[in-house]
Amino acid sequence: MDITVDPPRPGTEAGAGTRRRAIEHWEPEDTAFWQEAGARIARRNLVYSVLSEHIGFSVWSLWSVLVLFLGPEYGIDPAGKFTLTALPTALGAVLRIPYTFAVAKFGGRNWTVFSALLLLLPTVLAGVVLEPGVSYGTLLAVACVAGVGGGNFASSMANINAFYPQRLKGWALGVNAGGGNIGVPAVQLVGLLILATAGAAHPRLLPLVYIPLIALAALGAALRMDNLTALRNDKRALREVCREPHTWIVSALYIGSFGSFIGFGFAFGQVLQMQFHDQFGTPVKAASLTFLGPLLGSLVRPVGGLMADRWGGAKVTLWNFAAMAAGAVLVLAASRQGSLPLFLTGFVALFVFSGVGNGSTYKMIPAIFRAKAQRAVAAGADPARAEQEARRRTAALIGIAGAVGAFGGVLVNITFRQAFQGAHNGDAAYAAFLAAYALCAALTWAVYLRPSPGRLPGV
């Protein structure tokens, strides 16, 4: 959805009211304002936003590691473990829309503090209930609560979007998103350290590690971040883009890219344990490689945006889905041959290209509305008004795509669950992913690259 900044009131100064952490005058497009005070304030807010979002992603993906601790004494089969990782993904996706609204409603600083403190709920609960004999229903409820970490991405992106000028939004949002995404491999590395030192009998140590980190993130946000008082929600833009066909096309593509990234990040450790039990039968062996794919996928996300800047978002997205389809073919072939090196190569490729696709797909969103604005201007519309409408709808679509795309992680875990439950291997899941990537590639070409009178140029 769109969050806008009202024009500054006469007589206010940069940083007015910062003692109470409320800024009334914020005009980042003014070069003098930006150089004098804006850049410094925005950078400070970005740092603490990244920290909070990073921990939010770690808590969101907490159960991707905790399931590796759940041995036979917990009485949970592989299908049940995939359900435990699917639930927080689903709740996180649902929360992304209200979390975006919350920034303008309560203030970016205030909401960052509250949403960070809210992360204590799933971590404390996990630390309390994780012991043999706990009911599966209790574990499902506690795992679902971890979904609050998934909402932090949306509010963090909406907040930072308001602080930066148009010319720097891509960089700022890329840093914010990438820093948050790295929370997935970070929690997996912490889990690996605990497994290697304390052992699989101590799952409570993992959530307990994050309790002081959450407190520090909330304290840092309270002391160093700011509220922009002129922020307001533009609900009309949200209604408008919901009626826009491109909204659901881009959201489907983001399911293929981000949904794959977060879904594989949650499921990869379990897949290794079940697909290659002889090599990864112990939790520590599975965790030793689980972090690698999400780490690489997080680091290359800005690369996808840079490639899209140079060659166009649709072209990069098309070839990226073709590469993901090739990765799925490699994983399927490796699974059938029982080849661990090929399997790891294919899965790492899927992580890397899902990260590239995250960046290139998001870059398509402003290009779509820019092209539509240019058509409107050619038909006689006011250029300034057309540009303003493009920006409003771009922000709204970014919010929707982020929420819908996260549901792809749920689909990934459900697909794995059904595949391993039915055949005790993931072949059916890998074939389904191949079909999905082929469909995404075909959709990208048909809508944005196929020569036709209705094609939007420059996407």
What is shown here, in short?
This protein has 459 residues and is mainly alpha-helical. It contains 20 helices and four strands. α17 (313-337) runs antiparallel to α20 (427-449) and α18 (340-378) packs antiparallel against α19.
Helix-strand blueprint:
Elements: E1 2-5, E2 22-23, H1 31-60, H2 62-69, H3 78-106, H4 108-118, H5 120-129, H6 136-145, H7 148-163, H8 166-181, H9 183-197, H10 205-224, E3 227-228, E4 231-234, H11 235-242, H12 245-275, H13 277-280, H14 283-290, H15 292-299, H16 301-311, H17 313-337, H18 340-378, H19 383-423, H20 427-449
Helix pairs in contact: 1-7, 1-8, 1-9, 1-10, 2-9, 2-12, 3-4, 3-6, 3-7, 3-12, 3-19, 4-7, 4-10, 5-6, 5-10, 7-8, 8-15, 9-14, 11-19, 12-14, 12-18, 12-19, 12-20, 15-18, 16-17, 16-18, 17-18, 17-20, 18-19, 19-20
